[in-house]
Amino acid sequence: MKNACLILLAICQTLVLTASAENVIFDFESGDMQGWKIVEGKFEKLLTDRAEFHHKQGPYNKEGKYFLSTLELADNSPSDKATGVAESPVFRLDNAEMSLLVGGGRHHDTYVALCTLDDKQHLTASGDDAQPMKKITWKAPKELLGQKVFLRLVDGNAGGWGHITFDNFQAVGQLDEAASEAHFASRKPMLNDIPKPPAPEASQISKTGIRHSFLITGAWTAIIGEDNEIIWRTPGGSRDGCVLENGNVLIAFGNVVKEFTRDGKVVFEYKIGKGNREISTAIRLANNRTLITELGNSPRLIEVEAGGTIAVDVVLEPETNNAHMQTRMARKLPNGNYLVPHLLAFAVKEYQPDGKIVKVLKTDLEDLGGRKAENWPFTAIRLENGNTVINLTHGNKCVELDADGKVVWVATNADAGGLFKDPCGGQRLPNGNTVFVSHAEGRPDGTKVFEITRDKEVVWEYKDPRYQSGHEIHILTTNGEPVTPALR
Ligand SMILES: [Ca+2]
Ligand SMILES: [Ca+2]
C-alpha cells in the first residue's frame, strides 16, 4: 500500500512537472550543445567561446561565454564556406513571448527559425550583415501555444556574410526528450530546398502616389517610365545627360558626348580633347551649342557648336590635379556665366565666359561640419530666387545656399533615414521638392533615387535591381505631366 502511494505520488509529481511552465533556455553556458545536433552539412566548431570579431575586434554582444556560430573553423579561423543545419531539442511552447540573439548574414539562407514537427518554419530571424548579435523578440501566433516546436539554425550560404550566430534563446515551455528523439530520427533534409525569395522588381514607392518618368545615368543609361518600364536605353556607363525638347537624348560618357535619337542614331558627337581624361558635363544650351566640361591636365569648360567647333573655352580652377575629382555637372546661368562645382576645392565657382571667377560658394562651412565633413559639391543648381542647390557627395547631404553663400536649407541622413549614400546628381522640382541619386546604393532592393519635401519628408523612392549605381537624373514627368523648368 505504502509503495502504491509512493508510485501514485511520483506519477502526480510527474504530471505537475509536465503541466507546469518552465523556462526553455538555450544559452550554451554549460559548454555543450544542450541537445542541439548538426543534422545536415558540417560545421567544424559550431559551439564557440570566441570573445571578439575576427577582423574588427568588436564584442559579439553574446550572452555569457558560449554561443553558436557557423563561421568558426577548428583552428579558430573564420570561413563562410561551411553550410549546414543544426536543430534544437523539441519543446512544448507555453507562452507566445520568446527572445534570442542573432548575428551574421541577412541572406535568405542564413537564419534561425522556430519550426513545428510538420517541418513548417513559423518565425525566422537573420543577422544584418554585421557581427554583433542583436536581440530579437518573437511573438508566436496563438495556434502554436501548447504545440511541440524546435529551433533550426540554417547556413546555406558559402559567400560573403554567409554565416549565422545565435545565443540566449529564452522561452516558456517544456523540453520533450521523447519527441526530440523521434524528430531527429525522422527529419527530412531541407538544406538544398531552401526557397529563394522572389527577385526584387523595379518599384516606385510613394504614400502620396507620386510616379515619375526620368532619364538616369550611371552604371545604366536609360529612360524609365512611370510604370518602371524601360522606354529607351543605350549601353555603357555615363555621367551627365538630359532629354532634349525634341525627345533626343544627350549623354556624357567617360570620354565622349553623344546625342541619340530614340531609335539609337547618333546625331551629335564630341570626343574629349587631347591630354584630358574625363568628361563630366553635357547640357544643350539655348543657343543650340553643347556645354561640356573636361577633366585632366587642362580642366576646361567648353561650348561646342553642332558641327563640332569649340566656340567658348574657359579654363577651370579646380584646385587639384586629381582629374577625377576636378568637377562634375556644370551649368550655364541666364546671365551668361557658368556655375561649376569643384569637389576638392569645396566650392562652387561662378565663371564669366572670359574665365574670371565672380563668385565662390563654399561647402566646407562650419554650419555644415567644416572641412572634415568632406562635403564635396557635385551639383550646382541655381534657382530663380538666386539660391543654389548643391548635392554634397561623400558628406551625404544636400544644401541650399543663398546668394551670399549662407545656408538656408540643408537635408542630411538624419532627415532622409540614411538614404543619402554618396548623393550625386539631383533635381529641384517646381513644387520645391528635391530629388537625389544615391551613387553608392548597390543593393538590389536599395533605394537608388529619392525625393524629399521642403519639410524633409521622403515622399518618393525608386528601387531598381536592374542596375547598381546611378549618377545623374532628369525627371521628365510626374503623374503624366511634364516637369518644367528642369532645375538640375
Ligand atoms: Ca551564451
Ligand atoms: Ca556559410
Task: Count structural domains.
Answer: 2
Biggest sheet details: 12 strands, antiparallel
Distance between the termini: 96 Å
Using the coordinates above, name the CATH class of the largest domain.
Mainly Beta
- Taking all residues together, what is the mean pLDDT? 94
The total strand number stands at 39
Query: Rg, please?
Result: 30 Å
CATH architecture grouping of the largest domain:
7 Propeller
Helix/strand class: mainly beta
- CATH homology group of the largest domain: YVTN repeat-like/Quinoprotein amine dehydrogenase
Uncertain residue segments? 8-19
The DSSP helix count reads: 3
Can you list the ligands bound to this structure? calcium ion
> What level of helicity do the residues show?
under 10%
Describe the structure.
The chain has 3 helices and 39 strands. It is mainly beta and 488 residues long. 7% of the residues lie in helices and 44% in strands. The chain is elongated. Strands 1, 2, 3, 4, 5, 6, 7, 8, 9, 10, 11 and 12 form a 12-stranded antiparallel β-sheet that branches. Strand 31 and strand 32 form a beta hairpin. The N and C termini lie far apart (96 Å). It folds into 2 domains: 173 residues, Jelly Rolls (Sandwich); 280 residues, 7 Propeller (Methylamine Dehydrogenase, Chain H), CATH 2.130.10.10. It binds calcium ion (2 copies). The site of one calcium ion (CA) has 9 residues, from loops.
